Amino acid sequence: PRPRKFTLQCLHGSLLTSCCTMDTTDKPQLVEHIHKSLTLTVNDVKWVPCSARFALLGTQPRGTGALQVYALNHGKLEPMMETEKQHGFKCGTFGASSLEERHFATGDYEGRLAVWNLEHVDLPIYSVKGHTGMINAIDGCGGLGVGYGAPEIVTGGRDGAVKVWDPRQKDVPVASLEPKDAETARDCWTVAFGNSFNSEERCVCAGYDNGDIKLYDLRTNSIRWETNVKNGICSIDFDRKDIQMNKLVATTLESQFSLFDLRTYHPKDGFESLTEKAHKSTVWVSKHLPQNREIFMTGGGNGSINLYKYSYPAQRVIKDPEGMEKGVMGTVELLNSRTFSTQPINSFDWHPDKEGLCVFGSFDQSVRVGIVTKLSRV
């Protein structure tokens, strides 16, 4: 049956106008709450923890870096802070900071990692030249009450290196995973922390431009698993950082994303996975909902965002003919999709406290705050 719709009427001055249409289906709705046009290229957006503010990173037309903070105020975006630096900003994270300090770690086009106090942005409180060339991706762990162990930052660069930093230790990374031959090194496009379920265990997953996915075990300082999905990896996201490895979503070029079940490793076949087509173009970003790890959003090159839900199989582990345990994949369901822009959605972040509130940036030089409804009913 077709969903019923109710049109509400409101009296504005002397005009009777139609103000909104409510859909009564149980499907989550993707709603644009605020749309703000900017004069810069947006590269990353992140909510400031425990607040109604978000930080925005980008590049000005003249190539300089822009770091801005906006606050939600009665349906509008209010600029709280803006600074311009010498080099463009590519990525940022609050993941290694405490909730009290809320320091913001950034990676720029010149390969410099910096940590900022957003109340005083004249000089970074930590800065190191980490890579030769651009830092493509960054992630943090051990802060914000998420994950065990020391606060650490991981960066992945155009030089193919993946480096783990402790902001309390100056100049030298605590772990460095570099290609043997710099000339044949592949760009590292994305990095993510995971498996941080006690003070000893922690992994870093990295995705490369040739389709390689490598899982590094920081406890043993070795590659735990690797695979290739044949297309450049644009984004990698664990469903949770602070639990034993469960699921991983990797988005790629050629309008695909792959989902891996990381609970059961088979010596011959590795981790089980499924691959889905999405967006009819590059899938730029994926992010799991903090309040429900089975729900995740992807941002595509066609300017749309897709909301998915993963459903587990009746039995997650079976035994092969040789008696070895092997994982079983579940299914992915597209809950809803909506196009917001004519340009790619290249960055996305869920609010950690307010379920359904999100912010995303696109290459049309604008940032949008969105609301996803009915997530608690999914």
What is the compact description of this entry?
The chain is mainly beta and 378 residues long. It contains no helices and 32 strands.
Walkthrough of the structure:
The chain has 378 residues and is an all-beta fold. The protein has no helices and 32 strands. The protein has a four-stranded antiparallel sheet, with no helix packed on it. The protein has a four-stranded antiparallel sheet with strand order 4-5-6-7, with no helix packed on it. Strand 17 and strand 18 (212-217) form a beta hairpin. It is globular, with a radius of gyration of 21 Å.
Number of helices: 0
Total beta strands? 32
Low-confidence parts, pLDDT < 50 over ≥5 residues? Answer: 1-24
What share of residues is helical?
Answer: under 10%
Radius of gyration: 21 Å
Give average pLDDT, whole number. Answer: 90
Based on the structure, what is the oligomeric state of the protein chains?
single chain
**End-to-end separation:** 20 Å
